[in-house]
Amino acid sequence: MKFEKLNVPLEGKRIEVEGGQLRVPANPILPFIEGDGIGPDIWAAARRVLDAAVKKAFGSARRIHWFEVYAGGKARDRYGEWLPQDTLEAIRYYTVAIKGPLTTPIGGGYRSLNVTLRQELDLFACIRPVRYFEGVPSPVKRPQDVDLTIFRENTEDVYAGIEWREGTEKCRKVVEFLNREMGCSIAADSAIGVKTMSARASKQLVRKAIRYAIERKKPSVTLMHKGNIMKYTEGAFKEWGYQVAREEFPEFTITEEEAGKLAKRPASKVMIKDRIADSMFQQILIRPSDYSVVATPNLNGDYLSDAAVAQVGGLGLAPGANIGDTTAVFEATHGTAPAYAGQDKVNPGSLILSGAMMFEYMGWLEAADLIVEGMRQAIRTKRVTYDLARHMEGAITVKCSEFAGVVIAKIEEGS
Ligand code: NAD
Q: Fewer beta carbons within 10 Å, N or C terminal of the chain?
């Protein structure tokens, strides 16, 4: 594979895909995007932790060969554009990548680099696990009851970017068409946005969520939607979701309704249920332990992820993944926090935990487990970055790089 301006590592092999399954070599080449703002700080910290976990788990038998690819400010300086083809092709070719946060360029012709990356690579599922680490300050009484994995559809809904500014020729045309041909009565001074949701994208998202729940023996998948109002988009999402469960996983799933008719719910089956979006926000506050995997359209998922993460300690500990059929890009879910850039100050936890998700995806479970346990132990020492320390009694504030050092020490102590 030839790239215009990238230096491929001289050693290492790519992850290949065979029959829809990853074939991960012992020495994979993994592309990374450092990111903008605090990206270089948290990536430098996370990379040390990821390498330490691989070394502890596998000794010299496995090793990652990191491969820098560019997006955001660094890409603009190197290529004169924010998201070069080189980067997209490298991620496609090497299958699994990790990234720091990216600035959304103003006036660069992009809605957002992240949205573009997801759409270009068809990374249709955004996966965000939300779990509690003991000792992390939380605004709720029982944060330990929160253990959610949110599957958010990543390519459609109002995020598709189909909208027209009020007063423009195109907007006027759309309003006129809807009023004249479709029997609507839209005010002439309206702006218009289009919400699209396809059966294909909705089903592939729910399919991934159900597979994940079956493989990891999770108790339920909840379809979160606003179908009582948006019947043919969000309502259809719910119907398509149940259809996937019924037609593709009948022996592994049971609906809440079916289970209600039985004297005892079969524990081996994943319960499929649905909740209206507004009620779901209440539910995760008052009955979080009733929910496990949540599958939801794009906008609901965006809101729900941040609300859920707030219960367990905020954005500094929120990992994420954007996954397609096999291509996957793992990322911290927060932004570039420009006010803190270059200060070696912020929490690298979300990128470190994204790395653990990446290892899980690659089947390197021992390394993934070491990282999660290392984070758990590090937080217990109360030597944490400012965002956690300011709400933790008796905590000592450490720098971003120092926190990585605490996690590495705990990984190295681990058996
Ligand atoms: P942000 O997440 O960058 O920052 C909001 C606040 O959260 C910060 O001021 C800081 O107090 C806190 N914070 C964020 N990350 C932290 C960390 N690791 N440790 C401790 N505290 C942390 O959100 P924003 O200010 O709305 O966005 C800034 C830029 O980031 C924008 O250009 C936006 O488009 C971009 N962005 C990128 C991504 C991404 O790349 N995935 C996601 C969201 C926003």
A: C
